[in-house]
Here is the input.
Amino acid sequence: MSEAAIPSDRALRDAALRVLADNRRGDATVPSPGLYPHQWLWDSAFVAMGLAAHDPGAAAAELLSLRRGQWDNGMLPHIIFSDTPDYWEGPDFWRSREVTGSPSGVDTSAITQPPVVTIAAETVAGRLPAEEGRHFLESVYPMLLRYHAWIYRERVRSSGLAVIVHPWETGLDNSPPWMELMKRAPGAPVGMFLERVGLGRLNTKRRGDTRKVPLEERQTNVETLRTKALAERYRSWGYDSGVILARSKVVVESVDFNSILVRANRALDAIAEALDRRLPDDLAAAMQKTEQALESLWDDESEEYFSRDFRTQAPMRTSSVVTFMPLYAGTCSAERARSLVAKLNDPRRYATPYPVPSAPLDSPYFSDRRYWQGPTWMNMNHFIAEGLRGAGYLDEAATIERSTVDLVRRSGFREYYSPLTGEGLGAGDFSWTAALVLEHLAE
Ligand code: GLC
Here is the structure.
């Protein structure tokens, strides 16, 4: 979409639906055919949310298609691989089929992503005719219950907060606080050596992603070497949560994952109620605890929320967009909400021409083009706008939604955008951007 042709709401809606139709493979939608030709967990949830108002049947099928990837222990993996061979961390990298309890007949990754799926299921059911809605919930509930039970059994410890163990589990792959933490995780030795002696271009050459998107818009080679090596270490431990939690240096009580979990828990509760079921008592009690524990991630000194390093129990004091996520959870006090809104409106921090940047302007990590270290992402804007609305900041929510739609009108359905110039970056024809724009237009 060129800057010259500014599409109307209707043209934008049609174009968004076209992107989603083109990216659909059977019941599942791929995030972007070139760069991401498989199914990603939270991407599918965003797609279902956006499609709910337009084609609730397709949205329901999208969520139900995730069942085929569920592990015996209940985990929903962050990627379900299609037969398309073209991916650099594909089935040969994860080798899920070698692990007991992985689903049969399908290759998947072996870590998860934030549980937006449960929130999407509640939204989709609300858009289906009553009888179909109930039928859909009957079909999807067992998967969701097993998933939440897995999160609570394998990932929630005494604090009441869930831990995640890899930056890819946040969905914000190279977000600054995680990249700070990852400095303690060794990268593949040969690759790190090449970087040290100035031969990094050999690492770049071996990457699949940078063949499709310029390196400056993706994570750095060093970040990639570390994140890949961490996943490989987990593979050597059989992806066993017990071993990972005992041995890994990268275990995080993440503010974003837990904020989404709080909303997902409430959705699970509502779904159970709609089906006249009762959640198991111990699960219901543990879910309640997460809600209370989330506020312990507030840092009085800087008046921000930070994720917490589970090992050291120290706050990960590197600012990023996830500080706004407890607004979405709806747990923060009026005073804390006010302080967050002040940050959003601060031109030295988050008030850029095309908000909301994934890292603040005053962060040493900030780059307007580099992936999760500055660019504006539609899904974060969705969470923030919803959170603001819930906290009573209706004008601020509407402003973000408007600027989000304008950004897409101007620069197309891109993966992310420069918060300074509005330029579209990363992958093109990006599904969740199309889906979340549909959601705004539907409102
Ligand atoms: C990138 C994003 C992640 C997303 C995936 C597929 O890895 O960081 O959040 O799920 O792409 O779109």
